[in-house]
Amino acid sequence: MASTRFSPFELLLLKSRNQTDTAALLLLAWVAVSKGSLSPADRQRLGDMAGSLRHGHDHRLVLDVAEEQDLQAIQLAAEVLQRDRWGERALPFLSQAIELTVQDGNLAAASYHVLGFLADLLGVAPQRLKQLFLEVTGTQFACSEDPSRASYWQARERTWRQREQERQREQRDTHQQERASRQKRQAPPFGDKTLRALTILELDASATRSEIKRAYRRLAQAHHPDRFFSRGEGDVATASVRFQKIKKAYEYLMKDARFV
């Protein structure tokens, strides 16, 4: 009856001489499994590690549980391990986990995430994990994104929103340009009055609204009557006529919707 009430790992814990060591062995095996299936080298390494632990049962039974990826068993093992190995006391265990992940020289992204998860679970700060990883392997802990953390998905959502906003902005700009282009194609040809106004401002039919404004400011300044006051009444009168033409041409063109 008892065997039907407990999971295989719970039974191992009940029979274990040291539950902390049994939990540690399961989590180490889980680290190895996270790379894929257990290789012969992984099994040998885990067997060596099991020999130094005080669990009191066949370590292959623990490996079988790890290969089944039993999340409830992994959670239970983590809860057991937390009782005795927290913070700095968890570093020897994490060192063993790191050794397992790098022993074949091919460290998968999933292994980074598993190590980060275990460190977080055992109260080891990310910076301390990176330092420990460097001490054990001589290389940097390269993975900075951990999908098990909410911040990972929040950052991805922000990036997605920014890209979506940029896409919508580009789409609006494209629509505006297309609309302006259609309006320009559909606009009737300039009449004589418009062409004369453009000529007065020394522009052609391709002028834009901003070009008309710049031309007006330049010509209005050059032909303002006040500039000719010292030359006599004749020059002032001529400048006044010219200035009025420039002003009227500008005002006329500003009312034309085709100049956008």
Automatic annotation (TrEMBL):
- Domain J: where? 196-258
List keywords of the entry alphabetically: Chaperone
Is 4Fe-4S there in the keyword field? no
Q: For bias kind Basic and acidic residues, which ranges apply?
A: 163-181
Region called Disordered, residue ranges:
163-188
Q: Note whether Aminoacyl-tRNA synthetase occurs among the keywords.
A: no
A single Pfam family it belongs to is: DnaJ
Q: Which InterPro entries match?
A: DjlA_DnaK_co-chaperone, DnaJ_domain, J_dom_sf, TerB-like
Instruction: Kindly give the PROSITE patterns that the UniProt entry links to this protein.
Output: DNAJ_2
* Name of protein: DnaJ like chaperone protein
Please name the source species. Modicisalibacter ilicicola DSM 19980
